[in-house]
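Re: beginner question about structure tokens

> Can someone show what the tokenized structure looks like for a real chain? I only ever see the sequence side.

Sure, here's an example I had lying around. Input first:
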Amino acid sequence: MQAHAEAAMTDWMKQLQAKFFAHWKNRNPWIDENGHEIKGFIDRAARRTPHFRELQEAGIEEDEIWKEMNKKVPMRVFSWKGERDTTMSPLDSIRYYKRFLHSGLMAMEPTTGDVKAWVGGIDFKYFQYDHVKDGRRQPGSSFKPIVYATAIDNGFSPCFTVVDAPVTFAKDVGGKPWTPKNADGPPSGRQFTLRQAMGRSINTVSAFLVKTLTPGKVVDYAERLGISSPLEAVPSIALGTQDVSIYDLLGVYSTFANGGVWNEPRYITRIEDKNGNLIWEPVYRDREVLNEETAYLMTYMLQGAVQERGGTAMGLRRYKVAPLLPYIGAKTGTTQNYSDGWFMGIMPNLAAGVWVGGDDRSIHFRDRNGEGAKMAMPIWATFIERVANDPAINFQPGNFKKPAAISVSLNCDDYQITPAVDSTAYKPPTVSGLEDEGFR
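And the corresponding structure tokens:
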């Protein structure tokens, strides 16, 4: 699986990088929110390099340091067509490397926590940074299942309906009123089940749930589910604006697939000496963080992205994983300005997550080529396809285990339960003690 993960990433990132170079042509891709090139970007990046700091620590005057940084020297550089020898200055090499997109992938077995694949970046020789555990970026909508899990565990049903209408919070970060917008235009005014809303990634519905449940409760569930990054209990948590790692987020999704039991990802089972004697054996943690009914309902919710009309993971049908679609739950994630693209997918016996983005948040596509479905999903789909077709792995998909307490069909067309909350009449409680403007 490790070999398949590396091959899947390499195959797609070669193509995506070519598209990214063509997208920017002769322009520099580091831009501000207004689309203008960030002045002094490379100089600031240079100051953070070990080479610049070594020269400073050696007592060299700054003018001389910049002369050194602009001096052309022979070097070997990375390219997707193979290493190449060239001559460029340290500053030129920074400009060269900042144009590359990066990626991380992790796959694990939900029932055991066994890590099956871990690809920290596009090339370890030239980019020695682990985007799986050390890298933390905004997850965008791939964080929303935590919001929905909080709702399901507090009395909501996947079939509960919410109106796609504006939701205003009295204050968010900065102390101003905030009304989140949908990615694809103004609110439609239509009613959607929670499963449809999560599958389509409708922001207003996620905001409604956060306002109803309070941001603090969502943070509590995120931490319970294994998110170790510090999270602020603010309304914008509804849209996944706070940084997390692939490692942590995949643990959350694996918990849904594992009946509510979180397993610490494990990649060392034991250490033996040359004679097979045990030297060290780790103690890995596991804990039940959701009841199995909530966890199962979340797998049903995640399957909505693949099965519901307008689901953001419907693009999987373009790949050779089509026979597996009945067993897959998934979620895309795209952040502001297309800085990050995510794809998280689960089956009962395998969970995998992918992130793609620039070295800095200011380096990104300017259009929908930067969406998670277009940047990260191809890697995930290719990886799963390769795994499923490898006879040495003998991958056997299956259905998520339905708890005995859930004895009826989970088709929202014929399965309705009494709503815990009436979204058309319910007025959410005050959010985090702030003045409440009610549901709009």
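Each token stands for a local structural state, so reading them left to right follows the chain. Residues 414-440 have pLDDT under 50 and may be disordered.
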